[in-house]
């Protein structure tokens, strides 16, 4: 492992990230909100920090290994979250404290969508745009974007790609060259974003709101330009567009790539993970709508509209809102919240544990039941027609075990700061699954939580975005041995 090489890459990535603070300057000029100087200051600080890391190590050249990729991914997301908070700390009357600015920055980049801000619609337009852009950049992963650029600078990218793409099956590439893979992903991502924006505008959104919400919709982030989220527009058409693009974005981008390349949609129906997601959302929608209707909370028409949207929004870990589902009767709030633990498909912009892992856990459970009946039988776990190697099956159980252990430890940590049990478990679950909404005292926003609790949740967001092991491996002695 070469420390100089890693510092050189971090410096490059930081200087690249500073360029993403330029579009808000244009927005500031368009809307004359007076924030452009603050963004220039943030750019200068970020570029200076990147140069300090890069210039002394600019001659360090070496192909990255997987071990280097783990360290760079974890460091980059951590450093990025810190520097991404600069504009939020300089935001004039909307200035946030250091802790709140870092929380909001990490929440955006990890596409969690939890916020400490109230009166969102009264923020300067450039800050509103910047929050939405953070989610869009974090959705597909800035590291994957960098993979398409770093090879031209003499830095290999496969190690970064493997640590960034979510899910248990990380070694498959869409194209023979990793650079082309990253570009293909971003072309699809950008095309979906543009299509979503145009659909929102056609449904009546102002171009600024359409752009911002297309960013957070395709990224499955959940940030909005209004406190009332999507509910602000009170439009069935906008809600339907949002739900449709959330479902598309919750599916693996490799499926989108194959559908685009093959000019056919059969891959979606043939993919077991996509089929499971659609059936899961359908079943949950039926339960939710019927429950709302039987309890008299909403009539069948409004219940179908709100129930379907909230199911899709929460289950895909977006966190947009058209109704306060935490106030729904019975077990519905808990049921909806727990669905976020499933999340999106592997290789999507969704959070959670990923659908493929849930499928594997269910199939392995059924296999153990069959082994009790037939002890001598050789029973393989299959996804579709493909047998799953035991190594992957064991890794899924390992992930699930560590996930539960970390959830428990962070839950205890948040409760130790004085937060009640319902608020604690829902905020930890929301952060770890990159969901956003929570129950209890954080059902409206996270601003009233103790600072210590917010820092624990920042760690949870990072663990959820990088899928736990990418971060935890750095704390093992074996990782640092030569």
Characterize the main sheet: 2 strands, antiparallel
Ranges where pLDDT stays below 50 over 5 or more residues in a row are 149-158
What's the helical proportion of residues? 55-70%
The coarse overall form would be globular
Please report the distance between the alpha carbons of the first and last residues: 8 Å
Q: With helices defined by DSSP (H or I, 4 residues minimum), what is the helix count? A: 23
Average the pLDDT over all residues and give the rounded result. Answer: 86
Q: How is this structure best described in words?
A:
- With 482 residues, the chain is mostly helical.
- It is built from 23 helices and two strands.
- It has a two-stranded antiparallel ribbon.
- Strand 1 and strand 2 (386-387) form a beta hairpin.
- Helix 1 packs parallel to helix 4, helix 8 crosses helix 10 and helix 16 (300-315) runs parallel beside helix 17.
- The longest helix is centred in the C-terminal third of the chain and has 27 residues, at 390-416.
- The radius of gyration is 22 Å and the shape is globular.
How would you summarize this macromolecular structure in one to three sentences?
The chain has 482 residues and is mostly helical. It has 23 helices and two strands. It has a two-stranded antiparallel sheet.
Short key terms for the protein model shown above:
23 helices; single chain; two-stranded antiparallel ribbon; mainly alpha; 482 residues
